[in-house]
């Protein structure tokens, strides 16, 4: 299924977020600070910001695709389904290219962690610093990324709202079916829709909190405490950590594969003993 292809790319994007933010932060905290040179920080921040962009774009694409998939089979929706099925690979490539181009400016302002007296227009990540030359550049870059993310959040929220409406209508249609039939297993599309809606709800909630902190950092004319940045990046890690949990909870195929892997592992341990 195309939805599973998008999910795999979304999982990869969130893995990159963990590797380029969570792992460096832990290494820096345990004292391996010599690893984070200017070049290393530029690479890490570029990959992290690109991965964050991939995550929001793939979540948006997934919600739109699922919305079109379960929509009524009218001529307009059928054309859109056919388009997305046919050009899914091209859409994914376009997302990768556009996001990487959009993130090329950040490495110019990124340096390794060091002792500085003036951190007025600086975002302190602990292991790396993002230093902007003036307030105009800080707010321009910040509001530019905020506007991009907000556009896709609104789109995925609208798509998820339509999915919920379709699921509600479907539930009303089957309300007259016998109780024994109502208890049958949900079809794959319903499960996929619930996965998408849950991911969007989690992302939108964390995005709202992240944006409040982000706007606070942008409008402050004095140095912002590093703890504020830590909270923002913790929220980013929360979504990356929540994605696999949501997929495992709602995707029966993944649960079955994990169960089979656990059974195989137990049998292997018994053979060794």
UniProtKB/TrEMBL annotation:
It is found in: Cell membrane. The keyword Lipid biosynthesis does not apply. It is a multi-pass membrane protein. GO terms for molecular function: pheromone receptor activity. GO terms for biological process: response to pheromone. PROSITE patterns: G_PROTEIN_RECEP_F1_2. GO terms for cellular component: plasma membrane. The chain crosses the membrane at residues 46-68, 89-109, 150-168, 196-219, 231-250. The keyword Secreted does not apply. Keywords: Cell membrane, G-protein coupled receptor, Membrane, Pheromone response, Receptor, Transducer, Transmembrane, Transmembrane helix. It holds the Pfam family V1R. Residues 1-247 form the G-protein coupled receptors family 1 profile domain. InterPro entries: GPCR_Rhodpsn_7TM, Vmron_rcpt_1. Belongs to the G-protein coupled receptor 1 family. This is Vomeronasal type-1 receptor.
